[in-house]
C-alpha cells in the first residue's frame, strides 16, 4: 500500500512498445499496471537491424506520427514515451540496467528474425535476474496453437480458418488504463533517450508525404475514428462493396493494425456488436471476419515457413525465368504502363501509401505475369511505399498472386487488366480519380484508350504516347509469354 503511493521506492517495470502502439487492449501494458510497480514505457528504433527488415519509407512516416500520438496519450496520463535508438538487444539491456528494472514486458512478434532477437533479449535479461513477460497483442490466435490433426501447420486457408475458429472465441478486448504509476527516470537513463525528430523518420528534401498527411489520421484515436466510420457506413454492404476500388467499401484499418494502433480483437468485437445491434446481414460480417482470417493465416505462414519475402513457398518457382527489365519496372512503379486500372492503383499507392485490395491483385498480377518480373521486386516496392507494409500480409499477398504461395491463385490465372477495369470500375471513377489525363474519355474506352476512335481521343485531349503512354506490353502476347514460362517451369519440375 505504502509502496504504491511512493512508486519510486520500487524498481520499475519496462513496457517495451513495438507493433502495439496503443493503450487500450494492450496486454503488456495491462500486465505492467497490475504488477503494482512503477512503469517506464519505451520504444526502440533500430534503423538497420542486423537481422530482419528495415522499415520502408512510408511506414517510417506512419511510425513518426504514431509514436507522437502514443507519447501524447501517455502524457495525458502524466508520463511520456521514452524513445531509444540503436540495436534492440544492446539498447534494451543498457536501458534496463540504467533504470534497474525488475521486469521487462512486451507483446510478441512473429517473423523468424524478430523471434530470434526477442529470444536472445529474453535470455540476456533473465541471466541478469530481470523478469521477462510476453503476451499476444497482435493476433486472434497464436500461430502455433492452430495445427492439423497430425500437429502440422496448415497450408490451405479454408482448413486453417475452420480449425482456428472451432470452439474458439477471441479474448474480449480490455479498456485502456485510467492511470499509470510512471517511474521518474534517473539521470543515467535520461541520457540514453532521444527526441522523435532525431530518429529522422520523416521525409525532407523532398517532402513527398503531403498525400499521406491528407489521407490519414494516425495513432490510436485515428484508428477509433476509422473503425467508427467503417461500422456506421461500410460494414452493411461490405461483401458487395469491398471489390470496387472507387468506393469507400472497405475498412482501411490495415495501417492501424500493422502498427497496433488498434487490436484485431477490438475490431472483431466491435464488428460483431454492430452487426447484431443493426441487424446487418450475416454475409457482410462473415466476409469481413474472413479477411481478418486471411491476416491470421498470413501470420501462421510467416511463423512456420522460411522467410516469406525472400523464398518461394513452392520451391518449384525457384526456376522461373524472370526478366530483368528496369524500364518496364519503372513504368509500373510510376503508374505509366498504359493500362489505366494498373496505373490508377500504382498512383493511388504513391499518393496515399495505400491501395485497394482489388487493385493490389491486378497490379501484382501485371508485374509478375505481363512483365514477367520477379514478385520480390514488387514486394519490395510495396514494402517501401505502403503505410500498411506488413511482414506477413505483404509477402503472402505477393506469393498468392504469383502462384508460388500457400493456397495461392493458380499461376495460369492471368488477370486481363482491361476486363478487370470494366468489371470492378465499370464507370471508370477509379481511373478518373488517379489518372486525370484520361478523365474526359467516355466509359466505353476509359479502360483501353488505345482502342478509342481518334475523334474520341481528340475530344478528350488524349494524345497517346504524349499525354498518356501506349501499353508497355500487348496483353495477348504477354499472356502467351507468361504461360510459356510457366509451362517450362512445370516441364522442369
Ligand atoms: P479490409 O477489406 O477492410 O479488411 C480488414 C483487414 O483484414 C485488413 O485491414 C487486413 O488486416 C486484413 N486483410 C484483408 N485482406 C487481406 C488479405 N488478402 N490478406 C491478409 N490480410 C487481409 N495487407 C496488409 O495489411 N499489408 C500489406 O503489406 C499487404 N500487402 C498486400 C500485397 C498484395 C500483392 C496483395 C494482393 C494484398 C496485400 N495485402 C496487404 C492484403 C490486403 O490488400 C489489405 O490488407 C487490404 O487491402 C487493406 O485494406 P482494408 O484495411 O480496407 O481491408
Architecture overview:
The protein is mostly helical. It has three domains: 129 residues, HUPs (Rossmann fold, 3-Layer(aba) Sandwich), CATH 3.40.50.620; 121 residues, Alpha Horseshoe (Serine Threonine Protein Phosphatase 5, Tetratricopeptide repeat); 175 residues, DNA Cyclobutane Dipyrimidine Photolyase, subunit A, domain 3 (Orthogonal Bundle). The chain has 23 helices and five strands. A five-stranded parallel β-sheet has the order 3-2-1-4-5, with helices on both faces. Helix 4 runs parallel beside helix 5, helix 12 packs antiparallel against helix 13 and helix 16 crosses helix 18. The radius of gyration is 24 Å and the shape is globular. The termini are far apart.
Strand content: 5-15%
How many structural domains does the protein architecture include? 3
The number of strands is 5
Radius of gyration: 24 Å
GO molecular function, one term: FAD binding
Domain Photolyase/cryptochrome alpha/beta: 11-140
Protein name: Deoxyribodipyrimidine photo-lyase
Pfam families: DNA_photolyase (PF00875), FAD_binding_7 (PF03441)
List the helices and strands and how they pair.
Blueprint: H1 2-5, E1 13-17, H2 27-35, E2 39-45, H3 57-75, E3 81-85, H4 88-98, E4 103-107, H5 112-127, E5 131-135, H6 157-165, H7 187-190, H8 210-215, H9 219-233, H10 238-241, H11 254-258, H12 264-277, H13 282-304, H14 326-334, H15 340-352, H16 357-370, H17 375-385, H18 393-402, H19 417-424, H20 429-434, H21 443-446, H22 454-459, H23 475-492
Parallel strand pairs: 1-2, 1-4, 2-3, 4-5
The structure holds flavin-adenine dinucleotide.
Flavin-adenine dinucleotide (FAD) is lined by residues 242, 250-254, 257-258, 291-292, 294-295, 298, 357, 360-361, 364, 382, 386, 388-390, 393-394, 397-398, 401.
